[in-house]
Amino acid sequence: MITVERLNKTYKTAKGRITALENIDLHIRKGDIFGIIGFSGAGKSTLIRCLNRLEEPDSGRITIGGQEITSLSGKALRQARQKIGMIFQQFNLLDAKTVYDNVAFPLTVAGWPRAEIRTRVREILDLVQLSDKEKMYPAQLSGGQKQRVGIARALANDPDVLLSDEATSALDPETTYSILELLKDINRQLKLTIVLITHELDVLQHICNRMAVIERGKIVETGTVDKLFAHPESETARRFVAIARMAYANRFLPQGQGAAT
Amino acid sequence: MRSDLPDLLWEGLRETLYMVFWSSLFATALGLLLGIVLVAAEKGGVLPAPLFHKIVGTAINTVRSMPFIILIILLLPLSRLVVGTTLGPTAAIVWLSIGAAPFLARIIETSLKEVGAGKIEAAKSVGASPAAIVFRVLIPEALPALVRGMTIAVIAITEFTAVAGAIGAGGLGSLAIRFGYQRFREDILFATVALIVVLVQIIQWSGDFAARSIERRRFRQE
Questions:
Q1: What's the pTM?
Q2: N or C: chain A end with fewer CB closer than 10 Å?
Q3: B111, B119, B120, B126: best mutation site toward chain A, by most A Cβ within 10 Å?
Q4: Chain B residues interacting with chain A (CB cutoff of 8 angstroms)
Q5: Which of A105, A108, A133 should one mutate to test binding to chain B, selecting the residue with the greatest count of B CBs within 10 A?
Q6: pLDDT reported for residue B167
Q7: Does A97 touch chain B if contact means CB atoms closer than 8 Å?
Q8: Predicted confidence (pLDDT) at residue B217 exceeds the cutoff of 70
Q9: Which residues of B touch A96 (CB under 8 A)?
């Protein structure tokens, strides 16, 4: 479904070039919920943003659904983007538009007739359980509701892929859970491939079936999520798993031993 | 108070309103166009064209650096060409529109740039074209700021009409200079000043009201 080959990206800074991504190879299968995990600054955000060319890679090839994304420009790129939904950590909703108009936006842009837009928006708002909020403005919604609108907007034009750029990182645990459940449902119902980046092991554990670990711009480990927990190979993976285990141990050990020293 | 006062004031007010209205309209149209170019053509904008951006930016700075009274003199041939005369309120609309457009362009540029990069990225991610980003995202999102900026500009245009009055534009400014100053008619001087003050208050109040009602609609709490 998604193939990334020898992807490179550097940033120019005052001190010279900084390598953000180095020879990234990645293969994501259709219907996967694929998690990319890494610490801050590892390059995960740059990587996911290269997939729909919000960032321009320096070199390498990205293919999504048989279409070579890295060779597109102008109108062809815009049309390809219509089939690659994206959700964001800060939701990035349009404050000037109602919930309805936010969700309608990708369809308006794609030139859908008004009547069809109406049917589709109602359908998708129903899917994210926000049918009663269509006349509200984003400022009147909670964080979780805003992200549901973000998801509805990303799904409106019936994409093949959904990219999630830390979509739950600004939400409380309960809301995170409900958003993850929603993504899981969507993945099942719509046979949608989801690529998500996160710095939270819980997120990976909860919904991803496959994952990649990114460390200083390189993919250092890839495979099933179960494998990551059972046999973490990379430094980053080991640190993530160790932090999770430590937190768990600290919480339960003293209590379990009855040792109130 | 002499009997000619109401008639003179009424005529001056009508001319001022006429100049302010049309100049604001043309200057906003031109300023919006230039402001969009400044935002879109910039490096990293939705339709980058750095050289074009530089040319437009320099032209705007050049016009803005000229004192208005000198700009008027330079524009006299243009107003003769466009409206056939260099006298009266209609000629002044030419000077005022061109004088205020670069100012509006900068105000509009500033407002449009306040729109968060995330919103632009979200629009790009659904495949929006540069034009769709400008007209369906940037302008609606920046609307309250645009309205406030335009209020500042319309008041500046009102002030400029008084300056234009010194070169034969007509209006309240001209009245104050010709009668109030040159003929020692203090009644006219004070009356015109009072009228301009009231006019500026009304413009500011309307602008605030419009911007606030847009914001209230978007950000009201249930």
A1: 0.89
A2: C
A3: B126
A4: 116, 118-119, 121-129, 132, 136-137, 140-141, 143, 217-222
A5: A105
A6: 86
A7: yes
A8: yes
A9: 140-141, 143, 218
Task: Identify which of A83, A86, A47 has the alpha carbon closest to the alpha carbon of residue A65.
Answer: A83
**A165 touches A89 (CB < 8 A):** yes
ipTM given for this complex: 0.90
Which are the contacts of A23, defined by CB distance < 8 A and separation ≥ 6?
A6, A7, A8, A60, A218
Shortest Cα–Cα distance, A181 to chain B (Å): 23
Average pLDDT over residues A106-117: 96
Distance from the A121 Cα atom to the nearest Cα atom in chain B, whole angstroms: 15
CA-based nearest residue in chain B for residue A81: B127
Write the pLDDT tens digit of every residue in B150-183.
999 999 999 999 889 888 888 998 888 888 888 8
Q: Residue B186: is its pLDDT beyond 80? A: yes
Listed by start position, the domains of chain B span: 5-221
| pLDDT, tens digit, 9 for 90 and up, residues A176-229 | 999 999 999 999 999 999 999 999 888 988 999 999 999 999 999 999 988 888
Using an 8 Å CB-CB cutoff, list chain A residues near B219.
Answer: 95, 137, 139-140
Residue contact A92–B119, C-beta within 8 A = yes
Angle between helices B139-165 and B68-83 (to 10 degrees): 90
d(CA B73, CA A106): 50
Yes or no, beta carbons of B121 and A88 under 8 Å apart = yes
Contact A92 B126 (CB under 8 A): no
Query: B38-44: long-range contacts (C-beta < 8 A, 24 or more apart)?
Result: B38/B105, B38/B106, B38/B109, B39/B109, B39/B112, B39/B113, B39/B134, B39/B138, B40/B130, B40/B134
Q: Are A194 and A33 in contact (CB under 8 A)?
A: yes
Crossing angle for the helix pair B139-165 and B5-40, to the nearest 10 degrees: 140
**CATH fold of the domain at B5-221:** MetI-like fold (1.10.3720)
Is the pLDDT confidence value at A256 over 80?
no
Q: Which among A75, A86, A93 has the least Cβ separation from residue B125?
A: A86
Give A145-185 pLDDT, tens digit per residue. 999 999 999 999 999 999 999 999 989 989 999 999 999 99
The answer to whether A93 contacts B128, with C-beta atoms less than 8 Å apart, is no
Of residues A81, A93, A95, nearest to B126 (C-beta): A81
